[in-house]
From TrEMBL:
It holds the Pfam family RasGEF. One of its GO terms (biological process) is Ras protein signal transduction. This is Ras-GEF domain-containing protein. SUPFAM superfamilies: Ras GEF. It comes from Exophiala bonariae. Residues 63-76 have a biased composition (Acidic residues). Residues 326-347, 371-384 have a biased composition (Low complexity).
């Protein structure tokens, strides 16, 4: 008997036995029994076909009909398709060994050799920080041993260090900051599409970030008049449509909500000019409507806060006189002013002002001086004259925001570092007697006061202007002032540790600064945390082997966690994750904020033909939205006392070394002091070897 006939007999016998069992159990008539069997057979064949198709997808495609597939599935062992599926799954998992989430760019080791951004790429200018410039410097073999480049930013959490690996880690990958060079991304986004997205109802959490980021960044590619006229045109278009009245009103109210947010956040965009004329004319046309009257009143109150435009020195401006001195890439600024006389006039402005609930009267000559003198707007002198309020309404949101900003600027002006008292043992004992909680609270108070005096758009201005332009400007740059405070605090940490001659005294100061860094981390003050870590991990302190051995190992382990948190590994991935998971009061690591914005602004072009390269502004918008959210949650500090004033003066007025802008590296004096107290220092890359024993 052949094997095939034997197999057929076995199948026949099995089929007959199953029929007998079904016959004995089934009590229904024969017709229904055959119908149910046909349905069951049909369902089983469909499920089997679906299973075969699912298992056959990852396998190699073969030319076979349905019968051959069925027979092969019956004859082959069941482990064969599972093996193929498991192999394909492993291949897919190998390609996803490390998920690339947000704020985690691909490391330079994973880039191909043909990448356009190699180690020879010209890195744009970065902040004027002694401890931050080394972040973007390519490290060579000789420079790795140079004391000037040994800061905490050169450290890594890996065991082995090689000059090539440090070079690849120090060179930030700009593949995520550069726009993809594929044809899809080179088209850009038309301005009209951006307006549609600005006015449409947000569909998810990501879309809700578009409005604040767009209102902050649009001055880099459009004028206030161009944006306002586009919004008004959309408003009029919706009003003339034949959609349902309720839907139409909801759409128009959302447009007015965007205008209210715009006028409250950036009242300087509506300084005397065509944008203000158009806004007043538009509000006058809708303020008599019962539906739009509350929104029109809110926008009108925000427009009462008439201040100078503080962004005309770098942004697109409606003033034709200011546009003459711009470059050829700024020719778009001149076009919106051609039709300004037809849409807005001085008479409409006077009519709108008389209808408001404002009893403050001013001369027309003062208003003309505010609108015509463009140099006074761009000067930015830090005083009340830089933002003179001609008309105001105390109940408006724009006035409240302006008063809060002016108050923070005045307080920040008094907290500028003024090192003039030479460090001595008196300051050392005074510092050691202050509790750590009080020190952390006052350091955070100073940082928050400076941070709250910065508008989100000031960061865009800071990276748009060169260093010489910022220095020549008469406007106080609060970002540069905060960077100086960062450097001063880092030098304060290093100088206080190196002051004493005995290792036990230096160990006490080092231990206290490590505990202070942990307390500052608990307050989510990442800027001061970065400064303290920079001072301790600098080459001047890292080489003090005798001093570090006297610090308890538990304190060093705790500080090592902070070092990893602020490390540069994977583009500061640990810090970015901690920042995203901090939902209470927080202060960002300012050097990294400037680096991200500088990279995005300088490595990408603003326009692609006549369209806008919105990919560039998406990167900048993520940073700006994080800043805006952090500014909405202020710290709550107690009243200032004589004790707190003493702590503030100790930190801000103690002079460690010369911190002038002319000095190339003020840490050289600290390094000489470090060599003086300990002749033979340890390799800074091996200072945590005791943790690996």
């Amino acid at each position: 008997m052949s094997p095939s006939s034997h197999g057929k007999s076995l199948k026949t016998s099995a089929h007959s036995n199953s029929n007998q069992r079904l016959t004995s159990r089934e009590t229904s008539p024969k017709k229904s029994r055959s119908r149910s069997r046909s349905k069951t057979r049909l369902q089983s064949s469909r499920s089997k076909e679906l299973l075969l198709n699912m298992t056959a997808r990852p396998a190699v495609i073969e030319s076979a009909d349905e019968d051959s597939d069925t027979s092969s599935a019956e004859e082959d062992p069941p482990t064969k398709p599972k093996t193929k599926l498991r192999l394909d799954t492993s291949k897919a998992s190998e390609g996803q060994t490390r998920p690339t989430g947000p704020h985690t760019p691909i490391s330079s080791e994973e880039q191909t050799s043909g990448s356009p951004m190699g180690t020879s790429t010209l890195i744009p200018e970065t902040p004027d920080s002694y401890y931050v410039k080394s972040m973007l410097r390519p490290v060579s073999t000789e420079a790795a041993e140079n004391r000037a480049y040994q800061t905490f930013l050169n450290m890594d959490d890996e065991t082995e260090h090689s000059p090539g690996k440090e070079t690849e880690q120090l060179m930030p990958t700009m593949s995520n900051l550069r726009v993809d060079e594929s044809p899809k991304s080179e088209t850009g986004v038309p301005f009209k599409e951006l307006i549609d997205k600005l006015l449409i109802l947000p569909a998810n959490k990501s879309d809700s970030k578009f409005v604040p980021s767009f209102l902050c960044l649009y001055r880099a590619f459009a004028t206030p008049y161009k944006l306002l006229s586009a919004v008004v045109d959309q408003f009029v278009t919706i009003e003339r449509t034949k959609m349902v009245h309720f839907t139409k009103v909801a759409e128009m109210l959302r447009y007015l909500q965007v205008l209210a947010q715009w006028t409250a956040t950036y009242p300087g965009d509506f300084a005397s000019g065509p944008a203000r004329d158009l806004a007043l004319t538009f509000i006058q046309s809708i303020e008599n409507s019962k539906v739009f009257a509350p929104a029109a009143r809110e926008i009108s109150n925000n427009l009462d806060t008439l201040i100078a435009d503080e962004d005309c020195d770098w942004a697109f401006d409606d003033n034709p006189a200011a546009a003459k001195g711009k470059t050829s890439s700024s020719n778009h600024k001149k076009t919106p002013t051609t039709s300004s006389t037809s849409l807005g006039s001085s008479s409409n402005e006077n009519i709108a002002r008389t209808g408001r609930k404002n009893n403050h009267k001013h001369d027309d000559s003062d208003d003309e001086n505010d609108g015509g003198n463009s140099s006074s707007r761009g000067s930015g002198v830090h005083s009340n004259a830089s933002s003179i309020i001609k008309n105001y309404n105390a109940s408006s949101q724009s006035y409240s925001n302006l008063m809060q900003l002016e108050s923070a600027k005045l307080q920040a002006e008094r907290l500028k570092p003024n090192p003039h008292i030479r460090l001595s043992k008196f300051q050392w004992h005074q510092f050691m007697e202050i509790p750590i909680d009080d020190l952390a609270r006052e350091i955070t108070r100073v940082d928050w006061t400076m941070y709250s005096s910065i508008r989100p758009r000031d960061f865009v201005r800071h990276v748009s202007l060169t260093t010489d332009q910022r220095r020549n400007s008469r406007r106080v740059d609060n970002i540069s002032m905060m960077v100086k405070h960062f450097n001063h605090l880092a030098l304060f940490v290093s100088g206080m540790i190196l002051l004493r001659d005995k290792p036990k005294h230096r160990a006490r100061a080092l231990e206290k600064f490590m505990a202070l860094a942990w307390k500052v981390r608990q307050l989510n003050n990442y800027n001061s945390l970065g400064a303290i870590v920079a001072g301790i991990n600098g080459h001047e302190i890292a080489r003090l082997n005798s001093t570090r051995e006297m610090v308890p190992h538990e304190v060093q382990r705790q500080f090592l966690r902070l070092t990893i948190l602020m490390g540069i590994s994977r583009s500061h991935a640990a810090y970015r994750m901690a920042w995203d998971n901090s939902f209470t009061e927080r202060i960002p690591f300012l050097p990294l904020v400037r680096q991200d914005l500088t990279m995005a602004a300088s490595a990408n072009q603003t326009f692609i033909g006549s369209n806008i390269n919105w990919k560039k502004f998406e990167i900048m918008g993520d940073v700006i939205v994080g800043i805006q959210k952090s500014l909405e949650q202020p710290y709550s500090f107690g009243q200032r006392t004589s004790r707190t004033e003493e702590i503030t003066r100790l930190i801000l007025e103690t002079k460690i070394v010369e911190e002038s802008e002319d000095s190339a590296d003020p840490r050289s004096e600290l390094y000489d002091r470090s060599v003086q107290v300990e002749q033979t220092g340890a390799d800074p890359r091996k200072k945590f070897d005791w943790l690996r024993r």
